[in-house]
Design goal:
Layout lengths: L1 H5 L3 H29 L11 H16 L7 E2 L15 H13 L5 H21 L3 H12 L2 H6 L6 H21 L2 H17 L7 H9 L5 H24 L7 H5 L5 H20 L6 H20 L2 E6 L2 E6 L3 H20 L6 H19 L4 H19 L19 H10 L13 E4 L4 H6 L5 E4 L12 E4 L9 E7 L2 E6 L6
Parallel strand pairs: 1-5, 4-5, 4-6
Antiparallel strand pairs: 2-3, 6-8, 7-8
Helix pairs in contact: 2-5, 2-6, 3-4, 5-8, 6-16, 8-9, 8-16, 9-11, 10-11, 14-15, 14-16, 14-17, 15-16
Length: 503
């Protein structure tokens, strides 16, 4: 890379370094911009949402005791292997190294996400060596992108997606230019990491297969497809085995359909409902709706550009028929991702917003890399409009929950209750002994419940029975079968199972 920079004229070298620097610094510039808009420090936010708290708790326990905890999960649905919860080993895989190097703070995930994106951008610049204009446009596509703006200061894992896409493009581009097999292997490894985190990323194996087979159908492509399918299936089986079931998800219920007829009926009904939510129903925020049309509009531009080009001749715009395989491939990727989300996931409550946004951003980043600038420029304008909608209309996401920027409330009663009654048994052979079921989902609880305890989330009813040794609640108003109440300190109750559950 040094030789490449030296080969450039001085002005070009300066412009290139400035463009690269902007791209590499973009996640931190985004945090600075959010700080400016909110008047708060976006670099030092607190986990508030349930997913954020779960990620943070996973890092807290792993840093202190490793994986030797009680069972984590929801409604006492346990992983087949180990004691991990519904997010599996995501937090440890993505952020564990950062915690070991720098320790765990409330804002660790926020900073580590930004570091990941910067590392991905650095790899992209080193291997792709983009021109200054392309670096600047790619940086703008991150700075103007509503999903990135909404989640950059949160302890969610959304920002890591953009790092993943940059690494993926860097390795795939390096293979395309140099034809060295290890670059393709690194691209495959990147996709595998993505599949361990979010299985929809198996779609990214398709460009890898096409690149390996050099677009020529045959035995080479078939073998590559089988290998990719095997890796994807392996990732799914591993994560399914070590991850506690997410009892509120559609797949949880679909896979438990009583027969084939019920399976098909559930699938069709769910797909119809998702399509209605996406195109017809008015649920969701204006930001979500704007993103929906940004996604569809970009897909439509890619499809149209696959067969028609706009040219200027004699001062007039004219249409010319052509075929562009790259734009068609982008459309097919966006369509496939959309289909997967509609059929198997959700298109409401920010679900599609979070899961589709990396595919859209990858498409734009790839087109910028390939020099297909027309679609990214139009999409960047659409991003700006979407961002304007988000900022002009009632706050959404991070901007609606300013608790992220405020010191969480501290309860002396909760602290005393936990310290006095929730004492782990270091010699316990059954993980249920060190498992507590709770509905006190706060940062203070996550931090003060001893790390040896596994946490089970879920509401209680009069029919509630349990396997967990302990219950901590500030909502429960009725007795639960098989438990004795140990304390009721200003609303915080602790129950203990009378007869320990034997697996």
């Amino acid at each position: 890379m040094t030789a490449f920079l030296r080969s450039l004229p001085p002005r070009r070298r300066t412009a290139t370094l400035l463009g690269w620097g902007l791209l590499i610094a973009s996640p931190f510039l985004l945090l600075a911009a959010v700080s400016l808009v909110t008047g708060r420090n976006a670099f030092a936010t607190y986990p508030v949402w349930s997913d954020e708290l779960d990620y943070w708790r996973n890092l807290f326990t792993w840093d202190a005791v490793g994986l030797r905890t009680g069972y984590n999960g929801m409604l006492e649905e346990f992983a087949r292997v180990g004691t991990l919860g519904a997010h599996g080993f995501t937090a440890v895989m993505l952020y564990g190294w950062f915690v070991k190097l720098f320790g765990l703070g409330y804002h660790t995930i926020v900073i580590c996400n930004a570091v990941w994106v910067s590392l991905g951008a650095a790899a992209y610049c080193a291997l792709i060596r983009p021109r200054p204009a392309r670096s600047v446009l790619l940086a703008l596509c991150l700075l103007l992108y509503a999903p990135a703006v909404l989640y950059c200061a949160s302890s969610m894992t959304e920002m890591f997606n953009y790092a993943l896409m940059l690494f993926y493009l860097a390795f795939l581009g390096a293979y395309h230019r140099r034809r060295r097999p290890w670059w393709l292997l690194l691209a495959c490894l990147t996709v595998a990491v993505g599949c361990l985190y979010r299985i929809t990323y198996f779609l990214l194996f398709i460009p890898v297969i096409l690149c390996y087979a050099r677009m020529k159908p045959g035995l080479r492509m078939a073998l590559a497809a089988l290998a990719a399918a095997a890796v994807s299936l392996g990732c799914y089986l591993v994560t399914s085995a070590v991850t506690a079931p997410y009892t509120q998800g559609f797949l949880y219920h679909l896979l438990r359909a009583p027969d084939a007829g019920a399976f098909v009926q559930m699938l069709l009904s769910h797909t119809k409902s998702n399509l209605m939510d996406y195109f017809v129903n008015t649920i969701g925020t204006s930001t979500e709706h704007a993103f929906h049309w940004l996604y569809l509009g970009t897909a439509g531009l890619c499809l149209a550009g696959s067969f028609v080009a706009v040219e200027r001749r004699d001062g007039r715009l004219t249409l010319r028929r052509r075929f562009d395989a790259r734009l068609l491939g982008c459309f097919l990727l966006l369509a496939a991702a959309f289909g997967l989300i509609v059929i198997l996931y959700e298109t409401n409550d920010w679900s599609d917003f979070r899961t589709l946004s990396p595919f859209l951003w990858l498409t734009l980043a790839y087109l910028i890399t390939a020099g297909r600038m027309a679609v990214p420029r139009v999409a960047a304008a659409g991003m700006a409009v979407t961002l304007a909608v988000m900022l002009a209309l009632p706050p959404t996401g991070m901007f609606a929950d300013m608790a992220h920027f405020e010191q969480p409330e501290y309860s002396e009663d909760l602290a005393q209750t936990i310290a006095e009654y929730l004492v782990p048994d270091p010699d316990a052979e059954n993980p249920l002994t060190n498992t507590v079921r709770l509905d006190v989902n706060t940062l203070q609880a996550m931090e003060q419940i001893p790390p040896e305890f596994g946490l089970q989330y879920g509401w209680f009813t009069t029919e509630s029975t349990g396997k967990s040794r302990w219950i901590l609640t500030d909502h429960l108003k009725c007795a639960v079968s098989g438990y004795e109440r140990l304390t009721d300190m200003n609303g915080y109750k602790v129950y203990r199972l009378i007869e320990p559950y034997e697996e």
